[in-house]
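Sequence in, structure out. Go.
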Amino acid sequence: MSASVLQLSRGPAQVPDGNMTRARSIAVALILIATCMSLLPGCGGNTRLARQYCETGDTWYQKAVVLGRKLTDDEQQILKVMLANDVAGLVALKGQLTDMIGDVDESLGYLEKADDYYNKVLRLKDVPEYKQYAEIMREAVQKNKDSLTVGRQLANSVMGIIQSAESGVPVDLQAYVKSGSHTVNLLDQYVRTVIELETEARTYATQHDLF
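Output:
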C-alpha cells in the first residue's frame, strides 16, 4: 500500500491519468473502510465503547455525589442538635431523618448503576487505560457504598432514639454521640479514601487523555 502510494505521488509522468484516477479511488475507498472498521467492536470501537461506558458510569456516580453532599449537610445539622442534647430539636427533625434514609437508598441505586457501567468496561478487549480508570472508580463506588451503609445504620439508630423520646423514654443524646464516635471516625475514613480515589481517577484520566 505505502509503496504504491509513493509511486503514484511522482506524478502523471509515470502513471497514466486513468490509472491515477483509479488509484486515487482505491486509496479513498481504503481510507473509508479503515474509518468504518475503527467503529466496529473489537477494534477502535472498543475504545469508543469504553469511553462511553466510563462517561455514563461517571454520570451516575456524580448523581450519587450530589445527593451525598445533601446527606452530609443533613447529618451535620442532626449532629449539632444531638451535641446540644436538644431532644425536642431532634424530634422535630424526624421528617428530615426519614428523607435522609430515603436519600441513602437512592444514592445506593445510583452507585449500582455506575458500577454496572464500569464493569462493562472491564469486559472489553484492548482498552487497558479505560479498564484501569474503571477499576479505580469501582473502588470509589464500593467505598461510597460502605459509607452509605454505615450511615443508614446510624440514621436508623437515631430514628430509634426519636421514637423512644416520643414515647416518653429519657434519652441522653450526648452519651449516644460519644458511644458512636468510632463509627463516625470510620465514616470520616471512608470519605478520605473516596476523595483519594477520585483524585487518582481524575489524574489518571488526564495523564492518559481518556476524555
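Check: The chain has two domains: 2-37, 46-207. The chain has eight helices and no strands.
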